[in-house]
Amino acid sequence: MVVDPCYASWAAYLNGLWGGRSSVRTVLDVCCGTGLLAVELLALGYHVVGADASTAMLDRARARLGAGIELHRADLPDVGTVAVFDAVVSSFDGLNYLSPDALGVTIAALADRLRPGGWLVFDLHTDAMMRFALAHPVVTGDDDGTRFTISSDVDVAARTCVSTIELRRPDGEGFSERHSQFFHADSEVRAALTGAGLADIRTVEEYSETPVDAETLRATWIARRGC
């Protein structure tokens, strides 16, 4: 598995957004996967709890993060805990795997895990990503000797994409995995956030201060629970 180097910069952005640990100390990492964002947040001093639907991913997260971290195997909208947090995050398009109806229910459930004034931050693939996948149904490349091929089948009417990712390492080992995602309309996401009682809603380009525009492939959504 290729370790994406973006997580350190994403964690640094979140740290700046929250003003360090002056207002945020506890973080629920939803769709935490193998713990790549969690390990960066832990290094910055945050108390992190992780939740993911994959036992295999959580096993790798446990190996990376150590036995002391609290991890839950849970299928959204369940997150495996009734604790309340200063912030809830979900990175690397984890919520794109949910149908529009499931996204609304999940956002409401995540809002319930926030203290008053708490932060919800997540990222989603955009319409620009849908157009990119439609225009480039097969993408190939090389990452430090590991060859990859991403084949995408986009249904514009259904706003879905089924992608197959194939990796081949220099030693000849490789694997293939299949992903099915939804491209959520901005209006639906905003309505779900508002309906869950969240406010101060805004979007930026992939954990940065850059505004979202028509070419943004991954948008970061930021919202807060009312005080």
Fold and architecture overview:
- The chain is of the alpha/beta class.
- The chain has two domains: 6-126 and 184-225, Rossmann fold; 128-182, S-adenosyl-L-methionine-dependent methyltransferases (N-terminal domain of TfIIb), CATH 2.20.25.110.
- The chain has six helices and eleven strands.
- The strands form two sheets. The protein has a seven-stranded mixed beta sheet, with helices on both faces. The chain has a four-stranded antiparallel beta sheet with strand order 6-7-8-9.
- Strand 6 and strand 7 (146-155) form a beta hairpin.
- Helix 1 (6-17) crosses helix 2 and helix 4 runs parallel beside helix 6.
- The longest helix is centred in the middle third of the chain and has 13 residues, at 100-112.
- The radius of gyration is 17 Å and the shape is globular.
